[in-house]
Amino acid sequence: MSRVLVGVKRVIDYAVKIRVKPDHSGVVTDGVKHSMNPFCEIAVEEAVKLKEKKFIKEVVAVSCGPTQVTETIRTALAMGCDRGIHVEVSGKDYEAMGPLQIAKIFAALAKKEEASLVILGKQAIDDDCNQTGQMTAALLDWPQGTFASEVTIDGEKVKVVREIDGGLETIKISMPAVLTADLRLNTPRYATLPNIMKAKKKKIANMKPADLGVDMVSRVEVLRVDEPPTRLAGVKVETVDDLVAKLKANGTI
Amino acid sequence: MSAEQAAALGVSYPPLQTYSEEEGMMRDAVNKFAQERLAPFVSKMDENSLMDPEVIKSLFEQGLMGIEIDPEYGGTGSTFFSSILVIEELAKVDASVAVLCDIQNTLINTLFTKLGTAAQKERYLSRLSTDMVGSFCLSEAESGSDAFSLKTRADKHGDYYVINGSKMWISNAEQAGVFLVMANVDPSAGHRGISCFIVDRDTEGLQIGKKENKLGLRASSTCPLNLDNIKVPEKNVLGQIGHGYKYAIGMLNEGRIGIAAQMLGLAQGCFDQAVPYTRQRVQFGKRIFDFQAMQHQIAHVATQIEAARLLTYNAARLKEAGRPFIKEACMAKYFTSEVATLTTSKCIEWMGGVGFTKDYPVEKYYRDCKIGTIYEGTTNIQLSTMAKFIDKEYDH
């Protein structure tokens, strides 16, 4: 039970007001504040906690993208990860990068690093895909514990309490496995200043998807990005009869 | 772009707002910590005039109290500029918390690091970085700006000193575990008798008086101290006997850059609260931000804050570069405290009636800023100091 891979994604900060590019090809990212995806922070926290409880020996933070993602890896290191891996992807490949490509990269790395667990955030706040964890598990043919709100290691098995529509579901899966972190799994720590200093000395390895035998070709093409339609004002009615009349009048019922 | 990236690209003179990767990460971490974890405590601490022990504990846990202390003593091992950024970020949320952090880092820790014997560093630095707050005791009822006319005496008796006197306006006194007391061993020698003594809180005869009921910075405890026949062993002398005045001056020269950072953060924090309101509030069919008079006032204040920032950062970089910095440090402290006064006053006006109520945060910034022109060297003292430097500059 030695090594955990944690995925961290660099996304537009949650507090930023998103603007669509004038050519509708995407959203404006230049000069916009970016930070670690909040669900990835929760994933890092869980991995570091497992290490503190001595269930695992090493936490490796992984991020895919251009040079800027090393900032995100450094933040993960400052939170307590031991080392980082930066998979360099830039230009058109980066713009077209989606869950399938990431999942292939993580699957390759999980095998290469002989990881016992891959912990990811359940989804990224920019694309809201909620696919990478599931795809990674499928490619590896590993069990998956997604939407985790509680994780307990029990020998060679992991007990995962999952947040599902109907409430909470508890499953027990064997390791190696893929877990994805949901909101209530933990409260991520702040990087303390001494840990930020220590993070400077931790290593970040560089590699390319080709080094892992992964082709980055996307089967998905973004045609157009638009803002959601402006919300129109509602209409207040006094009685249920009025409501039914109005709904009939505008053809809803 | 970080300083490292600028250097790699061959940019030799990056703008002042360029930070090393480490400084940038620290600043972001403290910003997040302050906005999320400290903010909920601020209003209650101000009302009750009491710093919450949870807040102090979290400052230590985050490593904010030993920023420049060597990791060998449990500190962070970072730089003076990092301290400045930390103080600025804390002050955006609460100037009282910022001053606690500033005094610890720029006054107490610096004195111990520069002047401490190996034994003193061993004994105090690890506590200062992990759980103990320090206080600096110079001012007295009869000696504020005229600091070196202090009357507290230290009489030598064999291998210990007996200290008698009283101190006033001592920050952090309620929380401090150690006090650096400036006392005179030989009044006939005037200021050349002033020496620095390390006094532990539990020393017999040390009485911490009732804290002042202040206009602002209320969560920062400011107390009088009574020293009644305090016995301090010789090994608790910090630095050399009779050199205390030099240490005080040297340290206050650096400390004033810290205060500049505090006032800067205060001004920025207040501004950040007020401007969103002006973008939301609609009168006469448009946002009040869109009235030209408002735009001009807001732009003017923003310019003053930017200038204050550049003065502060440059003074800090000059000090780090080992270049003369005293005049610039005075300019930074003087200017930022004036800018804080202007900014907070304007912000209340921009917010109108709600700005005047305690339900909104700006009135606290307005009250807190006033001490900036007073402590760690009044504005008049700063100006006179600057004038002395200017006079010398034309001396050839």
UniProtKB/TrEMBL annotation, chain A:
SMART domains cross-referenced by the UniProt entry: ETF
Pfam families from the UniProt entry: ETF
Source taxon at top rank: Eukaryota
Transport listed as a keyword: yes
One annotated GO biological process: amino acid catabolic process
PROSITE patterns per the UniProt record, alphabetical: ETF_BETA
CDD domains the UniProt entry points to: ETF_beta
Annotated ranges, domain Electron transfer flavoprotein alpha/beta-subunit N-terminal: 24-216
GO cellular component: a single term: mitochondrial matrix
Protein's cellular compartments: Mitochondrion matrix
UniProt GO molecular function: electron transfer activity
Keywords assigned: Electron transport, Mitochondrion, Transport
Statement: the UniProt record of this protein carries the keyword Mitochondrion: yes
InterPro entries documented for this protein: ET-Flavoprotein_bsu_CS, ETF_a/b_N, ETF_b, ETF_beta_N, Rossmann-like_a/b/a_fold
Quaternary structure and interacting proteins, as annotated: Heterodimer composed of ETFA and ETFB. Identified in a complex that contains ETFA, ETFB and ETFRF1. Interacts with ACADM.
Its job: Heterodimeric electron transfer flavoprotein that accepts electrons from several mitochondrial dehydrogenases, including acyl-CoA dehydrogenases, glutaryl-CoA and sarcosine dehydrogenase. It transfers the electrons to the main mitochondrial respiratory chain via ETF-ubiquinone oxidoreductase. Required for normal mitochondrial fatty acid oxidation and normal amino acid metabolism. ETFB binds an AMP molecule that probably has a purely structural role. The electron transfer flavoprotein serves as a specific electron acceptor for several dehydrogenases, including five acyl-CoA dehydrogenases, glutaryl-CoA and sarcosine dehydrogenase. It transfers the electrons to the main mitochondrial respiratory chain via ETF-ubiquinone oxidoreductase (ETF dehydrogenase).
Family of the protein in this entry: Belongs to the ETF beta-subunit/FixA family.
PANTHER family linked to this entry: ELECTRON TRANSFER FLAVOPROTEIN BETA-SUBUNIT, ELECTRON TRANSFER FLAVOPROTEIN SUBUNIT BETA
Name of the featured protein: Electron transfer flavoprotein subunit beta
Source lineage: Eukaryota, Metazoa, Chordata, Craniata, Vertebrata
Automatic annotation (TrEMBL), chain B:
Coiled-coil region(s): none
Intracellular or extracellular location(s): Mitochondrion matrix
Residues in Acyl-CoA dehydrogenase/oxidase C-terminal domain copies: 242-389
Cofactor(s) listed: FAD
Principal location listed in the UniProt entry: mitochondrion
Pfam families for this protein: Acyl-CoA_dh_1, Acyl-CoA_dh_M, Acyl-CoA_dh_N
Keyword annotations of the record: Acetylation, FAD, Fatty acid metabolism, Flavoprotein, Lipid metabolism, Mitochondrion, Oxidoreductase, Phosphoprotein, Transit peptide
GO CC field: mitochondrial matrix
EC number, as in UniProt: 1.3.8.5
Residue span, Acyl-CoA dehydrogenase/oxidase N-terminal domain: 20-129
Domain named Acyl-CoA oxidase/dehydrogenase middle: residues: 135-229
Molecular function (Gene Ontology), one example: short-chain 2-methyl fatty acyl-CoA dehydrogenase activity
Record-annotated membrane-spanning stretches: none
GO BP, one annotated term: fatty acid metabolic process
Pathway where it operates: Lipid metabolism; mitochondrial fatty acid beta-oxidation; Amino-acid degradation; L-isoleucine degradation
Reactions it catalyzes: butanoyl-CoA + oxidized [electron-transfer flavoprotein] + H(+) = (2E)-butenoyl-CoA + reduced [electron-transfer flavoprotein]; 2-methylbutanoyl-CoA + oxidized [electron-transfer flavoprotein] + H(+) = (2E)-2-methylbut-2-enoyl-CoA + reduced [electron-transfer flavoprotein]; hexanoyl-CoA + oxidized [electron-transfer flavoprotein] + H(+) = (2E)-hexenoyl-CoA + reduced [electron-transfer flavoprotein]; (2S)-2-methylbutanoyl-CoA + oxidized [electron-transfer flavoprotein] + H(+) = (2E)-2-methylbut-2-enoyl-CoA + reduced [electron-transfer flavoprotein]
InterPro entries, per database record: Acyl-CoA_DH_CS, Acyl-CoA_Oxase/DH_mid-dom, Acyl-CoA_Oxase/DH_mid-dom_sf, AcylCo_DH-like_C, AcylCo_DH/oxidase_C, AcylCoA_DH/ox_N, AcylCoA_DH/ox_N_sf, AcylCoA_DH/oxidase_NM_dom_sf
Stated family: Belongs to the acyl-CoA dehydrogenase family.
Subunit structure: Homotetramer.
Name of this chain's protein: Short/branched chain specific acyl-CoA dehydrogenase, mitochondrial
Gene encoding the protein: LOC110531877
